[in-house]
Amino acid sequence: MCLFCKIVNNEIPSNVIAEDENFIAFHDINPKAPVHVLAIPKIHVDSFNEVSGEMMAGMTQFIQKVAVELKLDKSGYRVITNIGEDGGQEVKHLHFHILGGAKLKWEHFSDADTKGHF
Ligand code: 5GP
Ligand code: ZN
Question: N or C terminus: fewer CB in 10 A for the chain?
Answer without folding.
Answer: C
